[in-house]
Amino acid sequence: MGKGAETRERIIEIAEASVLAKGFGATSIEEIIVEAGITKSGFFYHFKDKNELAHKMVRRYVDENNRVFDEIFERGHQLSDDPLQAFLISLKLLAETMSDLPSGHPGCLIASICYQERLFDRDVRNLIAQSVKEWHMRFRAILDDIAVVHRPRDAIDLGDVADMLSCIVDGAIIMSKALNDPKRIERQVLAFRSFVKLLFSPATAQLEKPPVPDSIQAA
Amino acid sequence: MGKGAETRERIIEIAEASVLAKGFGATSIEEIIVEAGITKSGFFYHFKDKNELAHKMVRRYVDENNRVFDEIFERGHQLSDDPLQAFLISLKLLAETMSDLPSGHPGCLIASICYQERLFDRDVRNLIAQSVKEWHMRFRAILDDIAVVHRPRDAIDLGDVADMLSCIVDGAIIMSKALNDPKRIERQVLAFRSFVKLLFSPATAQLEKPPVPDSIQAA
DNA sequence: CGCAAAACTGTATCGACGGTACAGTAGTTC
DNA sequence: GAACTACTGTACCGTCGATACAGTTTTGCG
């Protein structure tokens, strides 16, 4: 990585933390450059304006997010051949990942920007819509695979179930911020996991242990 | 209502629409007073600063929200004696209410402020935490009532299920903003309804009609 | 009607911020 | 040593939140 790229990276990191804490509108270029140890001219050398910073920031966030998702759902696939069990394992891993972040989840950049949409140009908004659609397709594909093996116990659209995970994570982040309780995110992901379990488990399996070990402690 | 109170009301209404569209930090007093047809001096006569505006705005939002909730869950209670059926009816009403808003849901003020928390003083943040806790207790009480009659099919904490509704609504609002698709909110509330149905319905009721009519069209 | 309080207006000023312009410079690379 | 990258320094503009304070209109009450 060249020196310029390094500086850009540092600026984006600082900006992201500030945007998640205060919102984009309230994040001043002044504070970013002070923390980054550069001048205002330096900032505008790297980014033509604040909107370009937003665009590069969202790009970075989405890529990193997708990387984590890939890892988690790949791991679940490794630990069980049954698509339902693999997904349930991945959801537990996701819940743990969310709660392991030291000072609580920093928040979802996508959500932060959605609440200030008028501040951003079409490029940024398209990028966000694109990534939400990608998450939908990712979860939808997993649920379709499960439905091949396990018949759903309710006639609900699996696309809506897929969206539900995104909604719950974003909603839980907001709740954890409002109550200053990072543990809510983990519990909400596990609540969604409970829904998936109920939706695909055989009707007779009332309050009994699932066929494949629920815990992945031994793995 | 006196003339002063009327003006304050108008200012708060204008401010709320702007905050939901752009965020609090990007909402200028200038644009508020132009739209309200007053001067800057007039604004600061009613509110000592922007933070006081935020506080009164949140107060109004929470009160109105609670009023709508009271109405919806009261109506469900009228339409069925069974607590589960009453809740399922109310959730359908809630979904309809959410989707009936002409140009999509304006967004959750609480969520908007959570993403810009550093901008607000302790008063505003306490008010928000309080209202989130109130929603938790409201839904928790309903679920506890249901659990007396219908045994849950999973050992999930009912407090988490209660929180899930708040999370899903907030998350769905974000998603509907990101995709510019207001219908997502309705569908997510109905997905939550499906979860509640699965959680409390007897294990044998696989894909069959519930005992009490699901639809409230005839009501 | 008269008067006081409420509900403003008008003017001026301040510091912080986003953004622009442009000249200059230190370090690296071919 | 020329070209290029990665900046710094300085100066300036318009907007915004906020403060101060004197002046004016509107309203309700006795």
From TrEMBL, chains A, B:
UniProt xrefs under InterPro entries: Homeodomain-like_sf (IPR009057), HTH_TetR (IPR001647), Tet_transcr_reg_TetR-rel_C_sf (IPR036271)
UniProt xrefs under Pfam families: TetR_N
Keyword DNA-binding: yes
Superkingdom of origin: Bacteria
Domain HTH tetR-type: 5-65
Keyword terms of this UniProt record: DNA-binding, Transcription, Transcription regulation
GO MF annotation list: DNA binding
DNA-binding stretch(es), residue numbering of this chain: 28-47
Entry protein name: TetR/AcrR family transcriptional regulator
Protein source organism: Phyllobacterium pellucidum
